Amino acid sequence: MQKVQAHVTEEAPLSYILLTAVTFKSVGGIPALREAFPNLALLASPRAAELLGEQATLTALREENLRYAEAFTDASIPDDSTWASAFEVNHIIRDGDAIELDDGVEIKVIGCHGFAEEGLAYYVRPDAILVGGEEVGVYAGRGKL
To answer: What is the value of pTM for the model shown?
Structure first.
């Protein structure tokens, strides 16, 4: 978290968490991020928001985080209520939506429902960057996606 905090300044604030899917690899760090940056807004698809509101999903994510935390002596996991509140979605976003940032930067939301029903990818303009997570596929070797 210290490396992330070192890059966040008043001139370059961290404002959003844009979910690609509700998998441990995609959301496991959200409680730590929201603890370090309490004003972060969590943006997710309608289905992702629904999943993150289910106790079974939160329990599974917490158990997975606890397993990983055991490997690190300095890791801490928030209590149950803090954990659950970290996953409260602030804004629902859908395919075709746009998120306007400073300096003319726009993030287009792209629905990618193949890997995960709730999946989203993001296209950043004018920089022509696609942020897809596993939503656009995972390289599985030469010629395999």
So the answer is: 0.82
